[in-house]
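TL;DR need structure tokens for one chain.
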Amino acid sequence: MAITKDHELHVRRRKRNLWVGLMLVSFVALVFGITVAKMSDGEMMEAFDHSLRPSLVEGSE
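>> reply
TL;DR here they are.
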């Protein structure tokens, strides 16, 4: 139990901080979900790195 009672300003600030934290966690979860959805497309994600890969050459199968 606190020795002194919290001031109204502190209570409002705590509520606002909780909402900002919740919005930040929601944004991070959204970005993570979009990233996972884009990466789990089923295809190999290959970037252009100046090397010849058999999977990119037509008729190599």
